[in-house]
Amino acid sequence: MTRSRILSGSAALQLIGPAAAFLVLAACAPDRAKQSADSASGRTGDAVPSNIPRYSREDFAILRWIEGDWRGELAKGGYFYERYRFVDDSTIAMRGFEDSTFKTPNDSATIVFRDSVVTDRGPKAEWSATRLDAKGIDFAPTKGATNRFSWNRESADKWTAAILPAQGNPTVYRMERVRPK
What we know:
This protein has 181 residues and is α+β, with helices and mostly antiparallel strands. It is 17% helix and 43% strand. It contains four helices and ten strands. Strands 1-2-3-4-5-6-7-8-9-10 form a ten-stranded antiparallel β-barrel. Strand 1 (68-73) and strand 2 (79-88) form a beta hairpin. The longest helix has 11 residues, at 18-28.
């Protein structure tokens, strides 16, 4: 399943990984997208707000813990699979996969460090880091999105991804390492 498809409802969230779910909730959910159309954070082309924290390259390197292959657990049963790789010292590539073989990609995202800002970029939305430390990272919407999300490290082999919609309850995915980096 690709990010370019418009999905809605909990069934769609069960078919895709957290990174894709963030984009679906933020950019594709009809009610939320309409509600945010007039807000500054929902307009395409907005610059990163001045209240977004600035980070160093060393801060970005803290995210090396996320490198590797991961299995995420869906709330209603089943799994999804993601791979995170540092492409260089300022870019992380995320790929979602159909199954545990990690052979057929079905999703992608890029997390970048540019101009002292850490940004999760998708085809229709962007989020910037509002917290980055050894325990995890929080993202706030900066373009085309209304939801927030967090990645919280529990150990070297476990973390959680939480989608925090503008309205409603958060959705939390448990991630477990399936292969070393």
